[in-house]
Amino acid sequence: MLLPAPMPDTAAKLIDYHCHLDLYPDFEAQFRRVAAQQIATLAVTTTPQAWRKNLELASNAPTVRVALGLHPQLAGQYPTDLALFERYLSEARYVGEVGLDAGPQYYRSYTQQKIVFESVLRLCAEAGGKILSVHSVRSHRDVLDLVERYLADTSNRVVLHWFSGSAADARRAVELGCYFSINRMMLVKRDSTLVRLLPRHRILTETDGPFTHIESRVMVPADVGHTVSLLSECLGLDLTSTVGLLKRNLITLEGEHDLLALSSPA
After folding, report:
1. What range does the domain containing 100 cover?
2. Is 144 within a domain?
3. How many structural domains comprise the chain?
4. How does pLDDT run across 177-205, given as a tens digit for each residue?
5. CA max distance for the chain
6. In DSSP terms, which residues pair with 158 in a beta bridge?
7. Which of 15, 135, 136, 140 has its CA 20 to 30 Å from the CA of residue 150?
8. Is 98 contained in some domain?
């Protein structure tokens, strides 16, 4: 049986930087729960149609950041989504989930995905100051090419979600200033080798719930404590040092706009 991971001394130090809160069956309760547990959560969306509802729920959940999304797996399915994305972008500091997916199930839409993703990046470049959570399944080079083309020398920041590219891809992403959100699955499979190659000051944690599982149940934001423990082992750090590292990384990424009243870094 999987034992509970040791939790940091205050829940406010937990960070789930990629979670689909609105896709849980009890999604309204999830927003309340995250707020009560003081977990810094990036609530990504898959379509701009979900923006308003997520924003409404987050208004009573001060630790939740809502990201305006247009998921690559849905690219082209909803013709009005890109226009809606552009309409709402001025209201959003966070953008996600966006990106490319060249997996077998979605490769047919890849050309359309690139059109949509390029449009998203162009709009973000024009707006400036966005933090993007980016999907890059089997498309790491194309994603990085487009990030370099549109976001280099802008005030935008990119966080690569569940990154599984090569070591060369990772080095290039680092050179482009990207961060990486690490989930439990990346630490229990071969990807842990890649995680050890990443600069520690560019790492955050995520669950990608409800699309990940721990034993036989769906992961929720509080389960990111397990990820923190696994990351500690991967990096050869104690838990307190890992928590402090993640908190500093979040503050560096978000600057003075951090929504949590976090204490000084451990």
Report:
1. 41-161
2. yes
3. 1
4. 999 999 999 998 767 899 999 999 999 99
5. 50
6. 132
7. 15
8. yes
